[in-house]
């Protein structure tokens, strides 16, 4: 799920796996595979970067958890921001690898 902002300023999260396309007309319109459309405040490039970062985090965490299944218990320790949780786990793992 990626965080986005409606033009009204309210925030919501969107399942990025369901995105069919993103248009800039000049407002950014996200079309899902079921035809639903969302008008968002973020630019097309920001949406693209957010989706890429989200998918990279999933791949990185999957690889780390395959190596160390105990990391799964660490995921429940962070309460608020799932993106901060993922990034902190990735950076924590990188720091461990550089000290070895």
Which regions have little confidence, pLDDT < 50, spanning 5+ residues? none
Average predicted local confidence, pLDDT: 82
Helix content: 40-55%
Strand order of the largest sheet: 3-4-5
Radius of gyration in whole Å, from Cα? 16 Å
C-alpha end-to-end distance: 34 Å
Largest sheet: 3 strands, antiparallel
Give the helix/strand class. Answer: alpha+beta
Strand % is 15-25%
The total count of helices amounts to: 3
Number of domains: 1
Order of helices and strands: EEEEEHHH
Taken from the alpha-carbon principal axes, the silhouette is elongated
Using DSSP, what is the number of strands? Answer: 5
Topology of helices and strands:
Elements: E1 2-5, E2 11-14, E3 19-24, E4 28-32, E5 37-40, H1 44-67, H2 71-75, H3 82-99
Antiparallel strand pairs: 1-2, 3-4, 4-5
Helix pairs in contact: 1-3
Tell me what the structure shows.
By secondary structure, the chain is an alpha+beta fold. The protein has one domain. 47% of the residues lie in helices and 23% in strands. It has helices spanning 44-67, 71-75, 82-99; strands at residues 2-5, 11-14, 19-24, 28-32, 37-40. A 3-stranded antiparallel β-sheet has the order 3-4-5, covered by helices on one side. The protein is elongated, with a radius of gyration of 16 Å. The protein starts with a strand and ends with a helix. The model has no long low-confidence stretch (mean pLDDT 82).
Care to give the gist of this entry?
The protein is α+β, with helices and mostly antiparallel strands and 100 residues long. It has three helices and five strands, in the order E-E-E-E-E-H-H-H. The chain has a three-stranded antiparallel beta sheet with strand order 3-4-5, with helices on one face. Strands 1-2 form a two-stranded antiparallel sheet.
């Amino acid at each position: 799920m990626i965080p986005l902002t409606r033009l009204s300023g309210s925030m919501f999260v969107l399942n990025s796996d369901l995105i069919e396309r993103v248009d800039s007309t000049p407002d950014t319109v996200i079309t899902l595979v079921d035809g639903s459309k969302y008008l968002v405040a973020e630019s097309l490039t920001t949406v693209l970067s957010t989706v890429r970062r989200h998918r990279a985090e999933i791949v990185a965490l999957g690889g780390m958890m395959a190596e160390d299944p105990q990391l799964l218990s660490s995921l429940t320790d962070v309460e608020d921001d799932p993106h901060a949780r993922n990034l902190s786990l990735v950076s924590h793992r990188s720091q461990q690898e550089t000290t070895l």
